[in-house]
């Protein structure tokens, strides 16, 4: 198993947790525009060392989630902007080009300092 991406959440936008109610988590790297930051889990951007693909694992705040689908631009968005939309629905088809779908229960709480890690 190889870590292909790792970062730490440093700030949670005032409306970011609202997306959890819709089984989503939206990330963006530090320095996001203020209107975007309000809806995102902000992190200290890490390097993406390999492609995100179905079958890899997301580790988030101590829980593991199998990746079931990856949108066509999700890897590029993560690499360049630290931005992805995680969907906790287990879909095997990406809903939007920037989505990464995972299987498992949507986390109820993701505190500042939590780690986001993709493992292949």
From TrEMBL:
Offer one Pfam family short name for this entry. Answer: PTSIIA_gutA
**InterPro entries listed in its UniProt record:** PTS_IIA_glucitol/sorbitol-sp, PTS_IIA_glucitol/sorbitol_sf
Source organism, top-level taxon: Bacteria
PROSITE patterns associated with the record? PTS_EIIA_TYPE_5
Record SUPFAM superfamilies: PTSIIA/GutA-like
Which GO BP terms apply?
phosphoenolpyruvate-dependent sugar phosphotransferase system
**Cellular component aspect of the GO annotation:** cytoplasm
**Record's NCBIfam families?**
PRK10377.1
Question: Which PANTHER family does the record match to this protein?
Answer: PTS SYSTEM GLUCITOL/SORBITOL-SPECIFIC EIIA COMPONENT, PTS SYSTEM GLUCITOL_SORBITOL-SPECIFIC EIIA COMPONENT
Task: Output this protein's name.
Answer: PTS system D-sorbitol-specific IIA component (Gut family)
Q: Which organism is it from?
A: Mangrovibacter plantisponsor
């Amino acid at each position: 198993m190889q870590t292909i991406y790792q970062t730490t959440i440093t700030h949670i936008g005032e409306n970011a947790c609202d997306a959890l109610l819709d089984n989503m988590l939206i990330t963006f790297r530090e320095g996001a525009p203020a209107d975007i930051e309000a809806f995102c889990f902000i992190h200290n951007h890490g390097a993406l060392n390999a492609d995100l693909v179905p079958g890899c694992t997301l580790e988030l705040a101590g829980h593991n989630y199998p990746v079931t689908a990856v949108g066509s631009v999700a890897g590029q968005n993560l690499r360049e902007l630290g931005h992805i939309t995680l969907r906790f629905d287990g879909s095997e088809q990406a809903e939007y080009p920037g989505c990464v779908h995972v299987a498992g229960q949507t986390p109820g709480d993701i505190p500042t300092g939590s780690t986001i890690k993709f493992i292949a």
